[in-house]
Amino acid sequence: MISEHVDVLVIGAGPSGAVAASILHKQGVKIKVIEREHFPRFVIGESLIPRCMDHFDEAGFVEAVEAKGFERKYGARFLRGDEVCWFDFSQKFSAGWDWTWQLPRAEFDKTLTDVLLERGVDIAFGTTVENVVFHGTDSVTAVRDENGGQREIHARFLIDCSGYGRVLPRLLDLDEPSKFPPMAATFVHVEDARRPSGEEGTLITFDVLEQKVWFWVIPFSNGQSSLGLVCPKEHLEAIQQANPTETFRHIINQSDYYRRRFEGIDFLFEPKQIVAYTKASKKLYGDGFAITGNSAEFLDPVFSSGVCFATESGSKAAKLAIRQLQGHVVDWQQEYEEHMLWGVSVFRSYIRDWYSGDLQKFFFHKEVNEEVRRKVCSVLAGYVWDKDNPFVTKHDRAVRAVTHLLP
Questions:
Q1: CA-atom Rg of the chain in angstroms
Q2: Is residue 379 within 8 Å of residue 346, measured between CB atoms?
Q3: Is the bond into 15 cis (omega within 30 degrees of 0)?
């Protein structure tokens, strides 16, 4: 069997893997990236948040992505009936980027890998992991390409960036149930033929239909838009029509704000559905490996945190792996797992408070203190590691404490 030897093997070429690979490559680390799919390929997660920009900047991707002309995202709009709430990222409490992108992930992810290929990074598309065996911190990964060719990749460190594929959690029995009740999502792309001109036609919007049911609209710069619904699993089951297309037309009809804009519009593909999508892992690292992004944990799409956790973990894992390869002692528990789980716990609190109704009350209340809004805005922008922000350090009770004081 053919064998290869590298310093670091990266599984997955999405944003987490791309950021990790770029950082490793820039430091002269011998790497290989393996990816099951061929790019471009469809994937959900089209709304980014500003913290991601720090990682894209560090990895050297911003210029190439900006050249694609993707829609800039300066904040987020929330609707509930006639009520409107707008968070402007330039008004956030924490230092950092004030904007990001909303974009079709197929083109975006391919842009990142095109940059890597131009830099000489070895990426094997159409390649599936069949097994991984660890010998101390070294690993041997058995892979198969789409023509049936097999090879072994020997690596001094392995970073799992496989996202929903969850390669190491599956192979090492690390999957564990999420703490959230099962939710469901259904989504589609459309040619947004009746898109209004000006700012209104560019705004990413979350339309609250019921306390635990919300509809998203994400306009892209190519004239298309992503539409989706997130709700409890039972709600989606209760509104099912004859087929996914009819179900989604029923959903559009529930939005007073968007009904006319999208009524009768053609879908670019049959609406997709994901049920019980939240995932967790028993641990995020081990001897010779780290697990990143959705491979580690996925919470909920309401605050667009998925790509942020992917790039944060990809960047952090790559830099720690470099230090370890250089012979330094790395405290993976403190420097990686505890760091990542802190961010997860902050967003988990805000997601909990969103579905309980507390955060929605805060969003739509007319008398909320502007300084408090700035601090919450920092969380929504992804700066959940800024411990100068009391709405980060006291995330488990801050929103509820403020909300309960509102009339």
A1: 21
A2: yes
A3: no
**2.130.10.10, 3.40.50.10800, 3.50.50.60, 3.40.50.1000: CATH of 2-73+96-177+279-343:** 3.50.50.60
Decide if 96 contacts 50 (C-beta within 8 A). yes
Provide CATH 3.30.9.100 ranges for the chain: 183-275
Q: Tell me the CATH class for 183-275.
A: alpha beta
pTM: 0.95
The span from the first CA to the last CA of the chain, in angstroms, equals 70
CA dihedral over 385, 389, 391, 393, signed as positive or negative: positive
pLDDT digits (tens, 9 = 90+) for 264-318: 999 999 999 988 766 778 899 999 999 998 766 667 888 899 999 999 999 999 9
pLDDT tens, position by position, 69-100:
999 999 999 999 999 999 999 999 999 999 99
Name the DSSP class of 226.
Answer: E
